[in-house]
From TrEMBL, chain B:
It comes from Mesorhizobium ciceri biovar biserrulae (strain HAMBI 2942 / LMG 23838 / WSM1271). NCBIfam families: CtaD_CoxA (TIGR02891). This is Cytochrome c oxidase subunit 1. It is a multi-pass membrane protein. InterPro entries: Cyt_c_oxase-like_su1_dom, Cyt_c_oxase-like_su1_sf, Cyt_C_Oxase_1, Cyt_c_Oxase_su1_BS, Cyt_c_oxidase_su1_bac.
UniProtKB/TrEMBL annotation, chain C:
Residues 1-199 form the Heme-copper oxidase subunit III family profile domain. This is Cytochrome c oxidase subunit 3. The chain crosses the membrane at residues 28-52, 64-84, 96-113, 133-158, 178-197. The keyword Transit peptide does not apply. GO terms for molecular function: cytochrome-c oxidase activity. The lineage of its organism: Bacteria, Pseudomonadati, Pseudomonadota, Alphaproteobacteria, Hyphomicrobiales. PANTHER family: CYTOCHROME BO(3) UBIQUINOL OXIDASE SUBUNIT 3, CYTOCHROME C OXIDASE SUBUNIT III. It comes from the Bacteria. It comes from Mesorhizobium ciceri. InterPro entries: Cyt_c/ubiquinol_Oxase_su3, Cyt_c_oxidase-like_su3, Cyt_c_oxidase_su3-like_sf, Cyt_c_oxidase_su3_a-hlx. One of its GO terms (biological process) is aerobic electron transport chain. Pfam families: COX3. Belongs to the cytochrome c oxidase subunit 3 family. Keywords: Cell membrane, Membrane, Transmembrane, Transmembrane helix. One of its GO terms (cellular component) is plasma membrane.
Length: 284, 646, 200
């Protein structure tokens, strides 16, 4: 850039008009040498960068094979299904849009998609990896510090690509195990009339066709598993914070909050809506 | 020119027909030629013309109209993104907008506008009177126009493509594609590819065969070299997207299973085929732009380009290497590491020939005496911007880095630096440079400077911050972002800056409009340039040159500034051009050049109708074949042209 | 600018054969781009074959008879095709007329056999990706065959009219023969892929 500026601003010694074809042959030879060395330098830098890139890629790849924990993530339009495969069915955890990992331990993330292509990306933990239907893949991530890491779908996947975030919560090994055992349990039974009424409304108005709440007849698989909904930090793939108000707004009219989302608007009376919100809010 | 001897033997009878230009005085010569090469007056003439200048001009105007549409959709997106969770534009419209923006910019603006300039300039620069296949040329324009109109009319009826300009399956496939949107996209691609391939074929034949006598390979202007290399890249890259878009439409229409993993198909197959075309596509846009630079630069530094051979070899190297890069769009799909390394290396390697060109241009400037006219400003703006785009390009070629910035605003910033900085700046420079040749009037220098600085500064203010946004993790193709992300202020800044770019382009169009009526009269060679297009009047007559030039030097008009060496012996009562040998441009044949015809238009309508119908039923292809064949037969059936008389 | 005549081209012919004619280069460019299309389609075939656990997927290898018949006819057609090229260069109108009629018939024959060739694939295009790609390959070649036979017939008719006597028509006939060679060669390759790759 500097050379360009110099070339432009250089004082011309012979400003007299001369034919454009009069070329100074000594100058041409100097140019040839200068251009030649500039090219040689470029080649050198590029070769070094290629080698550096290769080793960086290798050291990232060397993490795989040492994992102590596996998480299975399935992309859906527009949310993330998260499973922790256990030794038997009763131990397997199913949740959505939120991954808990123990700090400092490499975690194997198995990725698959059942509809379109998504891409799993938590910028502060690892690079992207696409979720391609029919081509399961995996990725190793490791969180060195405890904390909450936000991730987001990075491959355009339709209407609500913008609202398809995932949260990774890295915590101490003990905290992680405590979380794991809570998630393993089936949903707590409704306590009190309001929660019972809520469960009744949930089961009878069609919610159960798409959602599962383990421990109840609700066993739909289209939408996220709600067994421990209230333990999550956010709703609708990090579109809303998990508060009773947001939950009520979301159930009342998902399409105005996340247009195009697969969750339909279901007509509920105000009382039923409140009861459903209370019930779901109890599913810690 | 003793080497000009042909082989008269058995052709003598034929060779002696017609009125020749030999010894004809200039006034009578021009009258004859004007009659032989005329385009009928009025609307009908507009439909039937095969004049490369008229077709090139309308190609350019159409491409710029599509630029305006795509630019307005970008403005609408910036309006929505100015604030977090803004509700101006919903996801349905937003997804259509960014898809239409990308699709239009790539397929309907950038590639066609580069071809348009080639159609206009190549015959003039190599000293002939028309392209090799004038009717194919006319046909290609009509096909391009109908493809562009079709997809924008579909957009107006809320059927705009919305799966991205790359239309990844399964999102664009039979199961998830919305309504007929991906079908319109796929067929628009087919249209524009047909037209691009047609132009590539005629450019190759024209440059190979119709160069002025004496214009051997080492005397071809660098711009023409760049267009020739581009034509070859088109020839080998575009079939990939035709194959893939055909497969897509077959999957959607008749239930083939190319991309369906449940039936042995594969979603990644689409990406391989698409990027096999998609990466060379970038070079299809970029290579002619470097040609503009190599054409403009010598004129404004008053010396030939340094390193002619080096630049030609770089162009060819870029053409080849552009086919070795496609996988770098797919690093995140998870390929074997060795394969990734290969594509990293080849992506880095393409920086070498690009570097060669940059260094040669800088040496040229160093050795010359720069004149800072508007075309030159755009060239300098290009070098500055492109170097930044090239550096970030080297960064995204590295797999570990790419896995972070891929599909973020960093990449948005990168390719806008490469495509706007690397192609649109030289293009605007080219408009300022050749506008006098095309219209006969100069553009205003004062407005031109304002135009340059607004576009240049506005561009950098708009796109530079996107690098930072990308590194902060803002993904692409989102219609909104959460307030908590902290991206709001920078997005507002970007949206405001985009208004500066908009103002710059508004001035550009104002300048075109005003200068068309009031600009200073240009004369034949207003810039004192060296290539053949400046040897004829501005604007050039329908026959381009009253006598075809002979070339004795790489910079013909600097070597022979006053008197142009020409050939004689061509017919003036019928359209005739010279065809010569490929390497040395030794004349071999006086080839008749096709006359005006309505059939390219009617054939294009038939082809267009068949494509359009195929969106709704496969039978459209079968029944559509009938009018298409009629169109083509009538097109090629000789209609008593003089050369066909017994 | 003033002009200075330095060469006279009045004695040059108005048509010529092979690489002297711009049309020949146009034909070559079209052949190059179509060959690229074929190559990519064949690449897709092997790409899908490598991905699949069994190839062909869910179908027996295609029936050899009709495809081989087309191969025999096309390869045999090279002989009259080459003769017509020689006659065209000699500008022997009577022989070229005869040759064009022969080539039209020779062109229609494989199109008729092809009617039996699609069912001989023994799979439908919408059954799975294997079915899709073999139909695609065969369809692609049929399109080329149709176009060139159409072109040949039109040119044959033209040769019998007054306009057929113009010298340029011989150049057109020669370019048409050149393109036919491409149709034949591309079938040899596609035949091996469609019929013999599944038997490997």
């Amino acid at each position: 850039m500097l050379i360009l500026a110099a070339a432009l601003l250089r004082r011309r010694l012979s400003e007299t008009t001369r034919s454009p074809l009069e070329i100074d042959s000594r100058q041409e030879r100097r140019f040839a040498r200068a251009v030649g060395s500039a090219i040689a330098l470029t080649v050198l830098v590029l070769v070094m960068m290629t080698i550096a890139s290769f080793f960086a890629g290798k050291s990232i790849a060397s993490l795989s094979g040492t994992e102590t924990l596996a998480v299975r993530i399935t992309g859906h339009q527009w949310w993330w299904e998260v499973r922790y495969p256990g030794d038997d069915r009763s131990q397997s955890i199913v949740t959505a849009n939120e991954i808990h990992v123990p700090v400092g331990e490499p975690v194997k993330v198995e990725l698959d998609s059942l509809d379109v292509i998504h891409s799993f990306w938590v910028p502060n933990l690892a690079g992207k990896r696409d979720l391609i239907p029919g081509r399961p893949s995996e990725l190793t991530l490791i969180a060195d510090k405890p904390g909450i890491y936000r991730g987001q779908c990075a491959e355009f996947c339709g209407y609500q690509h913008a609202h398809m975030a995932i949260t990774v919560i890295a915590e101490s090994h003990e905290a992680f195990e405590a979380w794991q055992s809570r998630q393993n349990a089936v949903a707590s039974a409704p306590g009190g009339d309001e929660e019972r009424r809520g469960q009744q409304a949930f089961l009878s108005t069609g919610c159960a066709l798409c959602h599962t709440i383990r421990g109840t007849p609700a066993s739909g698989t289209v939408g996220p598993d709600l067994t421990h909904l209230a333990s999550r930090r956010a709703l609708a793939a990090d579109t809303l914070a998990m508060t009773p108000g947001a939950l009520a707004a979301w159930i009342a009219d998902p399409q105005s909050i996340k247009p195009g989302a697969k969750m339909p608007r279901i007509a509920l009376s105000a009382d039923d809506l409140n009861a459903v919100v209370t019930y779901l809010g109890s599913l810690e | 020119m003793s080497g000009l001897a042909g082989k008269p033997a058995e052709h003598t009878q034929e060779a002696l027909k017609g009125i020749r230009d030999t010894g004809l005085e200039e006034v009578r010569l021009r009258a004859f030629l004007a009659h032989a090469w005329r385009t009928p007056k009025g609307f009908y003439g507009w439909l039937v013309t095969v004049d490369h200048k008229l077709i090139g001009r309308r190609y350019i105007v159409t491409a710029f109209l599509f630029l305006i549409l795509a630019g307005l959709s970008a403005l609408a997106m910036r309006f929505q993104l100015a604030q977090p969770e803004a509700g101006h534009i919903g996801p349905d419209l937003y997804n259509q907008l960014f898809t239409m923006h990308g699709t239009t910019m790539m397929f309907l603006f950038a590639v066609p506008v580069m071809e348009a300039f080639a159609i206009y300039l190549v015959p003039l620069m190599i000293g002939t009177r028309n392209v090799a296949f004038p009717r194919l040329n006319a046909f290609s324009y009509w096909v391009y126009l109908s493809g562009g109109l079709m997809i924008w009319i579909a957009f107006a009826f809320e059927t705009g493509a919305d799966a991205g300009w790359f239309s990844y399956v399964p999102l664009a496939g039979p199961e998830y594609g919305i309504g007929k949107r991906p079908d319109f996209w796929a067929q628009m691609v087919t249209y524009t590819e047909v037209s691009a391939l047609a132009v590539a074929v005629e450019i190759i034949a024209t440059v190979f065969k119709q160069r002025a006598p004496g214009m051997s390979l080492d005397r071809i202007p660098l711009y023409v070299w760049s267009v020739l290399v581009t034509a070859f890249v088109i020839l080998f890259a575009m079939p990939a997207v035709m194959v893939s878009s055909t497969m897509l439409i077959l999957d959607r229409l008749v239930g083939t299973k190319f991309f369906d993993p449940a039936a042995g198909g594969d979603a990644l197959l689409w990406q391989h085929l698409f990027w096999f075309f998609g990466h060379p596509e970038v070079y299809i846009i970029f290579i002619p732009a470097t040609g503009f630079v190599s054409a403009i630069l010598p004129t404004f530094v008053r010396r030939p380009v340094f390193g002619y051979l080096g630049i030609v070899l770089s162009l060819i190297a870029i053409g080849f290497l552009s086919f070795g890069l496609w996988v770098h769009h797919m690093f995140a799909t998870g390929l074997p590491q060795l394969g990734e390394s290969f594509f990293t290396a080849s992506s880095m390697m393409i920086a070498i020939p690009s570097g060669v060109q940059i260094f040669c241009w800088i040496a040229t400037i160093w050795g010359g005496r720069p004149i800072f006219a508007t075309p030159m400003l755009f060239v300098l703006g290009f070098i500055f911007t492109f170097v930044i785009g090239g550096l970030t390009g080297v960064m995204v070629a590295s797999v570990p880095l790419d896995l972070q910035v891929h599909d973020t605003y960093f990449v948005v910033a990168h390719f806008h630096y490469v495509l706007v900085g690397g192609a649109v700046f030289p293009l605007l420079g080219a408009v300022y440079y050749w506008f006098p040749k095309i219209t006969g009037r100069m553009l205003s220098e004062r407005l031109g400077r304002w135009n340059f600085w607004l576009v240049f500064l506005g561009f950098n203010l708009t796109f530079f911050p996107m690098h930072i946004l990308g590194l902060q993790g803002m993904p692409r193709r989102v219609y909104t972002y959460p307030p908590a992300s902290g991206w709001g202020e920078m997005n507002l800044f970007i949206s405001l800056s985009s208004l500066v770019v908009f103002a710059g382009f508004a001035l550009f169009f104002l300048n075109l409009f005003l200068s068309l009526r009031n600009g200073r009269i240009a004369g034949g060679n207003p810039w004192g340039a060296s290539t053949l297009e400046w040897a004829t009047t501005s604007p050039p007559p329908s026959y381009d040159f009253s006598r075809l030039p002979v070339v004795t030097h790489r910079e013909p008009l600097w070597a022979e500034p006053d008197v142009l060496p020409v050939v004689e012996g061509l017919r003036v009562d019928a359209r005739e051009v010279l065809a010569g040998t490929v390497a040395d441009a030794m004349p071999q044949v006086r080839v008749p050049s096709a006359d005006n015809s309505i059939w390219p238009l009617l054939s294009a309508i038939a082809v267009g109708g068949a494509f359009l119908g195929s969106i709704y039923t496969p039978w459209a292809v079968v029944w559509g074949a009938i009018p298409v064949s009629i169109g083509f037969i009538c097109w090629f059936w000789p209609k008593g042209e003089p050369e066909d008389e017994e | 600018m003033r002009h200075r005549p330095v060469a006279d081209v009045s004695h040059l012919p108005t048509y010529d054969f092979g690489s002297a004619s711009p049309m020949w280069w146009g034909t070559l460019a079209f052949i190059a781009l179509e060959a690229t299309g074929f190559a990519l389609a064949i690449g897709t075939y092997f790409y899908l074959a490598v991905l699949a656990r069994h190839w062909p997927i869910g179908a027996p290898a295609p029936d050899l008879l009709p495809g081989t018949a087309v191969l025999v006819i096309l390869v045999a057609s090279v002989v009259p095709n080459h003769m017509i090229e020689v006659w065209a260069r000699r500008q022997d109108l009577a022989k070229v007329r005869l040759g064009m009629v022969v080539m039209s018939i020779v062109g229609i024959l494989p199109l008729i056999v092809r009617i039996w060739e699609f069912p001989a694939l023994r799979i439908s295009w919408d059954q799975n990706a294997y079915g899709s790609i073999v139909w695609f390959l065969l369809g692609l070649h049929t399109t080329h065959l149709l176009t060139d036979v159409g072109d040949t017939i039109v040119l044959a008719v033209l040769m019998f009219t007054q306009k057929g006597k113009a010298g340029r028509r011989f150049s057109d006939v020669s370019d048409n023969a050149f393109y036919w060679d491409f149709v034949v060669v591309s079938w040899v390759v596609l035949y091996l892929v469609i019929y013999w790759a599944p038997r490997m």
